[in-house]
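Page 47, continued from p. 46.
Same chain as before, 236 aa.
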Amino acid sequence: MAEAALPELAAVPWRAPVDARWLRRWGRLWTLQTVAFVVPFTLAGIVLIALEPLAVPVALASFAHGWVIPELHAFRGSNTIRPPRGPRNEKAEPVAQGFLGDLLGHEERELQRESGLAMERGELGVWLLGEAGAVLAANGGKRVHCFCVGTAERDLPPSDRIAHLLLALRTDEIGFATVANHAFSGAPWRLRRRIRKEQRPALDAAVKGAARRSRAVTRAGGEPGDQHAGPDGPRR
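Result:
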C-alpha cells in the first residue's frame, strides 16, 4: 500500500484493492446478475402465455418479479447516500458546514448545499459523498457504484461526517474504496430513479464529469482509471 494508506485497511486485509480493473470486473458481474434475474422470469412469462392464454395473470406476476428484483438492488444503492436516521447534532451543523465548504470548490460547495452530497473528482471517476456512503460515477459516466462507508463517531453533525469521508478519500482513494462495502453497481438511470429529487442534480453532474474526464483521458491516449487523469483529473 501507499505511504498514506488508510489505517482502516488493517481491518480488512483479505480484500483486494479496489482499482479501475476491479470496478470493471465487478460491474460485469452485476450485469450478469441482473440478466440472470430478468431473463428467466421474462421467458417464463412468455412461455406461460404461449401455452395457456388464461395464465396471463401468472405471466404478469413473473414479469413483475423480473422487474422488481433489480429495482430492489437499485434501492439498496440509493440508501448509501440517504441521510441516516437518528441524532444529527444540528446545533453544530453551521460550523461543520463552514469547515466542509472550505474543503470544496465554489461549484462543489453550492452543489453540496443544495443536494447534501459533496462531489470530488478522483482517479477512479467522480465521487459523490453523503453522510454514510458514497457513489462513484465510473466508466465514463456509464456506470455507478454505490458504497456503504461512514465514520465511527455517531454524534457528529452531517457536514462533519461528509468532511471526514472527503479527507479519507483524498488521502487514499483506492484504500477508501477498498474499506467501503460495495452495495450496488448499474446504469446511472437506475439509481437516479431511487434517490431523492434534490440529489439528482448532483448525480447528473457527477455522470457528466466522469464522461468529460473519460473523453479527455482517451484523447491523451490513456484509459479511464489510469494514474494520469488529464485536465479533468483529481483535485488535491
